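User: Here's a chain of 390 residues. Predict its fold as tokens.
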Amino acid sequence: MSRQPVFDRHYDAIVVGARVAGSATAMLLARQGLKVLAVDRQAYGSDTLSTHALMRGAVAQLSRWGLLAEIVAAGTPPIRRTTFHYGDETIAIDIKPDSSIDALYAPRRTVLDRVLVDGARAAGARVEHGMAVTGLTVAPDGRVTGATVRDRHGTVHGIAADLVIGADGRHSAVAGFVGARNYRQSKHRAAAVYGFFAGLENQGFRWFYRPGVSAGVIPTNDGASCIVASLPPERFGREIAGGPEAVFTTILAETSPELATEIAGAMRHGSFHGFPGEPGYFRRSFGSGWALVGDAGYFKDPLTAHGITDAFRDAELLARAVADGGTQAFRRYQTERDTLSVDLFATTAAIASFAWDMDMIKQHHRRLNQAMKTENAALAALTAPVALAA
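Assistant: Prediction complete.
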């Protein structure tokens, strides 16, 4: 039987959520010399909804953080080509190696989240799973001064901190407690059904598009590929009554009969997972004694498979703001995040609308590629912040 945890009276930062955004933020803050506690509701290394794909910026950050070798050692297959299928037209693009990376990767979250949590712990952060934040403590002047946390035994602990960071996803409890508002929201969202299939050849990322539908193949760990079938949410709502497998089979056959035939002889791992879609948003992400990172502060449709890359980028931007200190630094964090995200956000929303033909979707992808290049250049220009004084 596990022992009831005992916490220190005060931490420099409490990070609520220990997935990709939270554990990366906790690790970077601990490396700066802060005393950090990260808590998460779920079990260590548990799976979660994800597209798995890491874009160039995210892979470069993992390399810079010294964690990429562990992702590779876990048997994560290298991605060296991306192929776009626009109806019957095929465009293949090789991944160009640079000084820090020679491939992209798409690790299962059971792999990636463990590596990040282990990295946070190695940096000196305390990470506790099976714990839920039940509220925040607030000083008379309105500053957040800590959090109340319920452990797996049901005991509630009051823990003081200079900063509480919400990294707890789209339905962030921290955002709710502080009343963080959305100041921009997308009009479009895509629904999806995905599953894992073993035995497919690793041909890199493969994306398929036909009017009103799309699909993707993402090679990941254990010889499996995550295959995603996407469709408008209205259609998903009409057809999901027949079960997610029926939706998946129908959409895949419409998008690519060749891919449907290819997976007919593959072995499925686990069950199908459905996602009805949620609107993207920008949310106010800082205030007196609190901040938000990852999906808690900014979310865009998963259709372009850029969410983990967003999370890593914003973890680093927030860690730098904490190192600099002061309201202006946190305001700069939000502004930098928004500046790097606005084109990605708008283009992703346009793709999620399904209001495109083959020429239009190519244009959207060209804009997306340019926005990613801008983001990569900004990330490459970052240098490690100076560790804070003890």
